[in-house]
Amino acid sequence: MPVTKKMNGLPAPAAAAQDLPRARAARGVLVRQALAMAAMAVLAALTGFAWLAVPAALGTLALAAGAVVLELRSRRDADVMLHSAPFTGEGRDPETSAVLARRAAALTAPRHLRALAASVRAHAHSGRHILVPQPPAARLLSSHVESADRIAAALDRRPADVRAVVELEWLLSDPRPSEDRLRRVERLLAAS
C-alpha cells in the first residue's frame, strides 16, 4: 500500500491519523457488543430458549468479524503512520502513540523478522510449478535472488527499521510488486 492520497484529499499519513482512533473506538464497541451477544446466547441456551440462542450466536459471529476487519484497518493505518513517521510531526494523543508503539514492537519482534526472512527466502528460491502459479512477490524475488538473500540476511542478523519491515510487508502483499520497492527495502535494511 503506497503512501498516497486517500479519497478525502488528505495525504495518507494525515488520513490514517484521523482514521486510527475512530477505527480503534469502533472496534471496542463491536467487541463489547459481541461479548454481550455471546452472553445472551449462552443464557438463552441455558434457559431453554434455543430459538433466541441461534440468532444471538450468529450476531456474535457477525460482530466479531466486524471487529477483526476494524483491527486490520487499524493495523494498516498504523503501518502508514509508522512508515511516514520521519516526515511527520509527533503531535499525537497518548492512545495513538501507544498503538503505534505496540505495532512497531510487533513488526520488529525477532520472531516476526525471522518469519519474514523465511518467507523472502522461500519466495526467492521456490521453483516454478506448472500447475501452481507463483504469487507476484515470488516472481519478483526469484528474479532478484541476490537482493532477496541480502534482505533475508539483514532481517536475520539485527533489528530492522520499522519502515523497512512495513515496505517489505507491502511488497509481499502487493499484486504488482515493483523493483523500486524491493530496492527501497534493501536500502532501508542496509542503513539500519
Main traits of this protein?
192 residues; globular; mainly alpha; 2 domains
Structure write-up:
- Helix 2 (50-83) packs across helix 7.
- It is globular and about 65 Å long.
- The protein has 192 residues and is mostly helical.
- The relative contact order is 0.10.
- The protein is built from eight helices and no strands.
- It folds into two domains: 12-106; 108-191, no CATH class.
- It is 76% helix and 0% strand.
Distance between the termini: 22 Å
Mean pLDDT: 86
What's the order of the H and E elements?
HHHHHHHH
**How many discrete structural domains?**
2
Poorly predicted regions: 1-8
What overall form do the CA principal axes indicate? globular
Query: Count the helices. How many?
Result: 8
What share of the residues does DSSP label as strand, in percent? under 5%
Give the tally of β-strands.
0
Q: Mind describing the biggest β-sheet?
A: none
What percent of residues adopt helix (DSSP H or I)?
Answer: over 70%
Kindly provide the radius of gyration, computed on alpha-carbon positions and rounded to a whole number of angstroms.
Answer: 21 Å
Specify the structural class.
Answer: mainly alpha
